[in-house]
């Protein structure tokens, strides 16, 4: 029994069965495939039965139409079809039918959301779906009413990279790995709601189109806990796999997430499907619970603190969707304090298909909407809750409805002042939910009085643990021109050191303030030069950066200086100000230009590498490719946390974000952030030098596997045991990540030689042991380039090239002869033979299974020193000769080819186990008859897609076996037929 099946797949099937799914395990049960073709992914009989059951009035013609309609959705892409199908599953479809009152449109349900028991929940493993090139067989597919909503890929927890391998499989199934996009079967994913990678001791989830790096764990099964799950599943240990399967596939939760926690965001790069993560799902349900318990004895609301970059706007959107469904006619008011945020939230709601969000144009429009438009979704700036110039006294009451729900973004900033008071006067019975990306001050009096206590928190540490954000590191540069107040005179003397005393006196009159000094041209020249050198030497493409300046004038100076120094391609982004002088106004981008600049920056392949800003884009701007922020501006408290979070978004090969400080913002960081709880902000920004102990420890662990890094063969022998190799690989990659973080800082210098040696050991071990899990994924672009350059200089094949096959006899022999010792030759041959058998096993499981056992016995004898190096080399040569001579073996038995040899071995194996006797000539003749019958039908174009052809092959094989002289029972005939079909799939394309 494969480890993957025993350790992950079968336990997952058991868990799903306990969750109420009907489970068919094809490892132990024969399942009759009802499809006409394997290129379809819908179980049409189940779909048909469900539509008829949920809509008992429907006639035959309309039943056929509804069943056809969900399967024949046509779009410009699979993603577009997925969106259309989701729309039909949520909003249903309609048909024209006379139900006694004339011909009218009638709603046809595909899923019953109110009474979940009316639906058909079915699970099947190893479900075959034919793609353009090959058949995919996901480990588990979950069908609701015959529609495949879930795909699960299982891996054994003991393999080297279970997460990576499972996600690679899911990417392959979805055609997300290659530009041609032909290797998988997108048909299955037209319907997909959840894609899950699980290895029992871990699990991550996404949906169709989710990039590998954005699959996330589900750590909290709220509203239940692990004790509840332990009781429900009858286990002592609740694994991440249990938690994930419950969170996504409990019947009620699955339908809830399909209906309320799934949106399609249309961006310039295309449509993106988004599903909730656990903190979003939990926060929404907690908010709804508090709304249901609302009381005048406590504050009418609460605060959701989800750290920057964790999807706060989407949480607002999901809460809005739930409120729309849960309440009869709610009015939703979305409030922020900045035009950019108002635009962003309105656009997010609009793009994601939220029903008709309306933006308040001005103060008058806001009052009108709140006074008259019950049931609307309205976005506004808090500034629109102002009295008109001719008004006196209190703000007017606009509505006393208690069915108004106010969601306030960045609630810490503006909600304790006059405008907030006006809003609450206008809407005295409304329910207020504050959203913030930064923690509330530990001694804050007003926030909890205004909104109530926390509804939900998702901290910086939690987001780092989930890989929802990356760690932000801090580096102070050009310390002698940091603008610390105590050193202004010294800094002034340095910046203007080439001036006379008289000139200095005159300059000092003009440059009297800290900000003026910051904007001095000579200082900006020096800082810009350092930025250019740092960016070119330490930030690897595709990563990009932002330069944060004190003013619009400073931003323009930086931009000009960057251009003068032939620096990275940059754009200056400043706002339009009516009172700005003309030389400033001309630099402010138009709305069209701003959109273009942002798009070119966010695009990894876009030409813009640096954005120069002063205030714009420091909140709400999401650019995962941004890795570095060069700060030459005082930032404090919430503004600091919000600004630096621009570099905390995950991106492939991005191990960290970096803040480079030219202003001295960290010098009083503890003071500036003392207002927050230490636990809340201790990992907000980590000094780069703090990585020194981690780097030292990671280096010690990586080199600790070996006694002598220069003795290559001994090092390779050390890594022969798979568990040792896994441990080394993990330690090595941890060392690489830290080297990527610190390089080229001098901190990395003591470890560079060992990095080269360890990399060579790693590359040679990958080749020797044919270990595909030994890759540089996630180690960082800078260090990857260093390693590849070193490996090539050593003449080692590039890390991702295939090792030499034993079937390439001349090349393999030359490689063996080129090794330095019999020990190395024996090792290379052992692993080459094992790899070849593994790759070819399915072509003839009988012969290759026998060879596999033989090789394992030889290796065991070798380990026990019962065979010398030379003796095992001779034995392995014999095995290689047998693998290479299958054609001769087939001819010697009177068989036409190696395909017939595989059929012959399968027949022989079953006969021997059942003590059946047959003459060899008759067995050869029967083999030929079966091969002819199979080959004739397998010649049909795309026969693997056609279930009817496969059934005909199955029938013909059974007839041949039945009519033979063999006295096989029904179980033996079934087993042989199944084995012949599987062999045919390997041999007949």
Question: What's the SSE blueprint?
Answer:
Elements (H helix, E strand, L loop, with lengths): L2 H16 L3 E3 L19 H11 L5 H12 L6 H14 L1 E6 L4 E6 L12 E5 L3 E2 L4 E2 L3 E5 L2 E8 L7 H12 L20 E5 L4 E4 L19 H8 L6 H10 L1 H10 L1 E6 L2 E6 L2 H15 L8 E6 L5 H15 L4 E6 L2 H13 L5 E3 L3 H10 L4 E5 L22 E6 L1 H4 L3 H9 L4 E6 L9 H6 L2 E5 L1 H6 L6 E5 L11 H8 L5 H10 L3 H5 L2 H18 L5 E5 L3 H13 L5 E4 L8 H4 L5 H12 L7 E4 L12 E6 L5 H8 L12 E5 L7 H4 L5 H4 L4 E2 L3 H13 L8 H7 L3 H21 L9 H17 L12 H13 L15 H9 L4 H19 L4 H19 L5 H16 L1 H7 L5 H16 L6 H19 L8 H17 L6 H18 L2
Parallel strand pairs: 1-4, 8-9, 13-18, 13-19, 14-16, 14-17, 15-16, 17-18, 20-25, 20-26, 21-23, 21-24, 22-23, 24-25
Antiparallel strand pairs: 2-3, 4-7, 5-6, 7-8, 9-10, 11-12
Helix pairs in contact: 1-7, 2-3, 7-8, 9-10, 20-21, 27-29, 29-30, 29-31, 33-34, 33-35, 34-35, 37-38, 37-40, 38-39, 39-40
